Each structure stands twice: as C-alpha cells, then as structure tokens.
Amino acid sequence: MINKLIGTSQALEREENQLQEQGSIRADELLKLEQEAEILREQIDTLKQQLQDERQLVEEYRQELRYANSEMLLLNNELQNIFSVERLELDQAKRLARKILSSRQFTSESFAKLLSAIYGVVVTADQLEPLKSSPVKPPLAV
Predict the structure, then answer these.
(1) Which is the most buried residue in 24, 55, 82, 111, by most CB within 10 A?
(2) What DSSP state is assigned to residue 88?
C-alpha cells in the first residue's frame, strides 16, 4: 500500500509539474498577446494622429482654393470691365479731342483719357510721360 501511495504521490507530482509547465506556457502566451495588443494600440493612435493631420492639411488646401477662386473671380470681373468698355466712334473721339484742345490743357492725363476711350484699354498718364533719353521726332510728311 505504501508503494501504491508512493506511486500515486509521484503521479500527482508529475501532474502538478505538467500543470505548472502549462501555466507558465499560458502566462508566456498571455504576455506576448498583451505586448502585441499594446503595439497595435500604439499603431492605432499613430494612425489616428496621421489622419487628423491629413484632415487639417486638406482643410488648409480647401481654404487656399477658396481664396484663389475668389481672386480669380475678381480678376475675371476686372477683365470683363476692361474689355467691355465701348470704343468710341470716330465722331465721339473727335469731340473729345476738340474738348481737350479747347481747354488748352494738353496734359498727359487728357491724352491718356483720349487714348483709353479710342482703343478701349486703360492708358495711364505715366505711360505717356516723355522719354528723357530720346526726344520724339515728328513723323515725316509724305
């Protein structure tokens, strides 16, 4: 009977050792799973931050596009205004020239107005200032 008890005791010890080994294996597996889960959480947090940064960048691009679009609309309106100026008929241009001549104010501004009206483009007085380096020669008579 003692032999039987010793055998049973040894069997119980073996079972206990096996359970301890299985327990340590499960603990190791659990530790690995926890580490992997932590790594995955960190990756998720990183991806969330990247997504937020990308959304912010997209919003900045949208704002830039809205600004560029409004600028383009303003420029388009200005161009339409410039090109929609009616050109003067010859008789109207002559009347304007007579008015300038009769006022005896031959200024760059008055000629700029006349040229702007005739050609339908904006001419400024600055563009008509005489050149200092080369005098204007009158056209040759034919």
Answers:
(1) 111
(2) P
Are the C-beta atoms of 88 and 116 separated by less than 8 Å? no
User: Residue 107 corresponds to which tokens in the numbers above?
Assistant: 């200024």
Q: Looking at residues 18-35, what average pLDDT do you find? A: 75
Spatial CB neighbours of 107, under 8 Å, sequence gap ≥ 6: 125
Is residue 106 within 8 Å of residue 122, measured between CB atoms? no
Q: Are 87 and 119 in contact (CB under 8 A)?
A: yes
Distances (CA, A) of 26 to 2, 30, 71, 113: 35, 6, 67, 94
**Residue 15 φ then ψ, to 5°:** -65, -40
Residue 60 CA: distances (Å) to CA of 6, 34, 56, 67, 72:
80, 39, 6, 11, 18
Contact 96, 79 (CB under 8 A): no
The DSSP code for 126 is G
> Which pLDDT does position 142 carry in this prediction?
46
pTM over 0.70: no
